[in-house]
Amino acid sequence: MIKIKKFESIVNRLTKIRTNPIRQTIKLRKVKRRRLLSRQKRDFYIKKLQELATLIILRKLKDKKRLYKPYPFKLRKKGDKRIELVMRKIRRELPCERYFVYAFIKKKQYLKVGQSTRGLKRIEDQRDAYYFRDADRMKIFLPIKGKTKNLSRLECIITHQYKPKLRRHKPPNKKHKVKCEICKAHNIIKKEIGRMF
Asked: Residue 126: helix, strand or coil by DSSP?
């Protein structure tokens, strides 16, 4: 609720700045013409609104329906045994799952978020990557419904939610050409404020 109020407050402030020249027309004294908003300030408001929109939409998605079911796994051993042990754990917990989103985590930092349509083969392919080597945990997120249809959307939402270190390499909305609700909101905010100023 507080975040919605902050969002509305910023939108109202921007509307007031944009309509200020109209209000100035009824004043008798001469008013100096000023630039409505600097580029730096405009970019700040876009970023702030996008951050608030992300938090609000994530909250609404969680309240509306369950998007995924997370399965955490610890990565304890080093070297070759590391992949063997985690594979054994995953096969025990999720024996028949082919479609899921995975994440490698180091302490509280998400290193990498990706998706698999080939089951554990995708995880095995990344055994030599630094994010697998450095991670102390991994999570597998199973989509609740529409597994193949919603997989890219789910990856995109989890990327927005946890902001992994490698998100700029190939973000899901560019790689899979699928935009989630948050991406769409970000684009509208940027477009509309760009039109205003």
From this structure: coil
Phi-psi label, residue 56: left if phi above 0, alpha if psi -120 to 50, beta otherwise: alpha
- Percent helix, strand and coil across the chain, each to the nearest 5: 55, 15, 30
| Domain parsing of the chain, residue ranges | 2-63+185-196, 68-166
Closest by alpha carbon to 67, among 154, 136, 186?
A: 154
The two beta strands, 109-116 and 68-74, are: unpaired
CB 136 within 8 A of CB 101: no
CATH 3.40.1440.10 fits 68-166, yes or no: yes
Beta strand extents in 127-172 (DSSP E only): 137-143
Whole-angstrom CA distances from 154 to 21, 73, 89, 157 are: 44, 19, 23, 5
Q: Enter the pTM of the model.
A: 0.78
Instruction: Answer positive or negative: Cα dihedral of 25, 31, 36, 41.
Output: negative
pLDDT digits (tens, 9 = 90+) for 166-193: 765 556 666 666 678 899 999 999 999 9
